[in-house]
Amino acid sequence: MDWYPLYNSLRIAAISCVIVFFTGIAAAYYTARLPRVIKGVLDVVFTLPLVLPPTVCGYFLIMLFGVRRPMGMFLAQFGIKFVMTWYGGVLAAALVAFPLMYRTARGAFESFDTTLGYSGQTLGLRNSYIFWRIRMPACRQGIMAGTVLAFARALGEYGATSMLIGYTPGKTATISTTVYQLWRTNNEAAAFKWVVVNIIISAVVLTIVNMLERRDKKAVFK
Amino acid sequence: MSLTVDITKNLSSKKSGDFSLNISFETDGGVSGLLGASGSGKSMSLMCIAGIVKPDRGRIILNGRTLFDSERRINLTPQKRRVGYLFQNYALFPDMTARQNIMCGLHNEKDKTRKEESFQEIIELMQLMGLENHRPDQLSGGQKQRVALARILVGNPDLLMLDEPFSALDGHLRSHLQVETQKLLKRLGKEALLVTHDRNEAYQLCHKIALLDSGRVLVHKDKENLFADPESRQAAVLTGCKNVVGAEKAGEYQVHVPPWGVRFTTSQPVRDGLCAIGIRAHYFDPDAVQNRFPICFADEIEAPFEYFGQFRYENQLDESQNIWWSIPKGQKTAQWPSEIGVDPVNIMLLYNSSRTL
After folding, report:
1. What's the pLDDT tens digit per position in B207-224?
2. Alpha-carbon distance A102 to A38, whole Å?
3. Is residue A196 within 8 angstroms of chain B, CB to CB?
4. Cα-atom radius of gyration of chain B, to the nearest Å?
5. How far is CA A193 from CA A179, B133, B195, in A?
6. Is residue A222 pLDDT above 50, yes or no?
7. A190 CB-near residues (< 8 Å, 6+ apart)
8. What ipTM did this prediction achieve?
């Protein structure tokens, strides 16, 4: 059995998860301070990938980064090509997973007790210290949940990925595109193997999350 | 040591409507109180002084250091103001131990031995030995408050601001901590601002009190003076006067009280612009010779340590409310008196609060 799809899926999910972690948190943090109208508009834009069919997201990505599009042509000068490459899959997965991180982080930040930030400021603590050492730990459950959701979503991404990077064995194949490809070519037994792999990964991820949550509770009620 | 505050801030929100804060007062060391009902702008004033909220106009000067000046475009960040702010909920960082919380107040001290010394000093002062490694959710209300105070005091701020510091505590602990805090403030000799809606607390802890009402300072003076002569109608109510009634000038030492149908003699000369008088419930006296009028009893209310008699003057208007008279238990006679008087000294003359001094 060729394990490339597993390796590729994990690498795409992990990298897009890191990207989404920082961009999602930054988006949640900065939009909260914007005037209401701008905030409302940005909120819709940031959440759209969650409700749009992934194929529509894929369509937009091709429109933007296609090899004959201005953006794609510009990036090609630097040797960057998102179409039919594995790191194009990172882009697709990140786009689709972004709203999950953004919205859970926003919810966590909204329930953050603002007086904690204020008291940190009056104590003379730097704003960056307050963010990383006070706000983030206080919001860690929401942030963690968002990260896991984003990772799971990135791992299972199919629609946008298949449109942008297609299916090339050993190059762009991921678990989800492999399952479809194998099933389409009447190789049901092989498809079933990948389905099992996928279920195992998901179960492991969920178990880790539950363990983290339990440890967190223990720490609080120690 | 002094704090000068003269600021304006307009707030409009769809929920609570427009609110304008127009605060101006000066302190000269010691503990000053900001007393007012909720929504009178007390906490907002503290947030402006701390730099959390930016006023629209005005200036804030602490010990000669300008914290905010709209004309000179000075607006120091909260970090640079050196103002200690004790929040109502204490705002301890939940993911840090008591020690880590207190060390936040020492983040500027780079020398490790001196840092440790300051820490040991403050936990001894605040009696926190043994609690260093507890997290906020393992501390009681009183301990939380001491940690929060320690965290502020260890940084040696120029001004201490306490926002309803005892409101989260229950009765017994509250009076205990009030006494402790009073001692501590005395010992530190720091400039402090105490925000409270509790007049007893303000009286106990402060030497000067500013009364706030709808975003304005009604009156700011020594506490004894304030309770003896609150000057305005709203201030009289805020200092806990139960009987405030519309009145008009009737002579140099005479006031006419139309709703009660009586005329009182006063000990203070009555100025023009008198709008009301106030008589505290415990100042009515059945043995007083002056200002004596026939009354009839309406109701009796029993409190733990006193009775409240509610009575009406003979010619009192129907729409006017019953008058409160408080009698300590043990001094109550079997029969309510049929006449009651009040010493002229105890009649507070109240003027329109917009009056210029």
Report:
1. 899 999 888 898 888 988
2. 16
3. no
4. 24
5. 9, 51, 68
6. no
7. A1, A182
8. 0.81
* A125·B107 Cβ contact <8 A: yes
Contact B87 A118 (CB under 8 A): yes
The top-level CATH class assigned to B3-228 is alpha beta
| Residues in contact with B354: Cβ distance below 8 Å, sequence separation at least 6, in sequence order | none
Q: Do A138 and B84 touch (CB under 8 A)?
A: no
A217: pLDDT strictly greater than 80 = no
Residue B32 CB burial class (10 angstroms; 0-12, 13-18, ≥19): buried
Distance, in Å, from the CA atom of B176 to the CA atom of B147, rounded to the nearest integer, reads 16
Going by C-alpha positions, the residue among B40, B36, B350 that lies closest to residue B197 is B36
Q: Are strands B262-265 and B274-279 parallel, antiparallel or unpaired?
A: unpaired
Superfamily assignment of A4-220 in CATH?
Answer: MetI-like (1.10.3720.10)
Instruction: Mark yes or no for CB contact B87/A120 under 8 Å.
Output: no
Q: Which of A111, A115, A121, A123 to mutate to test the interface with B (most CBs of B within 10 A)?
A: A123
**Chain A touched by B174 (CB under 8 Å):** no
What 3-state DSSP class applies to A41? helix
> Domain extents for chain A?
4-220
In the block, residue with structure tokens 């302190």: B27
Q: What is the pLDDT of residue B355?
A: 44
- Whether residue A221 is predicted with pLDDT greater than 60 in this model: the reply is no
- Domain layout of chain B by residue ranges: 3-228, 233-351
> pTM (2 decimals)?
0.81
Give A-chain residues touching B84 at CB under 8 angstroms.
Answer: 122
- Cβ contacts of B94 on chain A, cutoff 8 Å: 116, 137-138
Contact B352/B231 with Cβ under 8 angstroms? no
Q: Which amino acid is at B187?
A: R
Give the percent of chain B with pLDDT over 70.
98
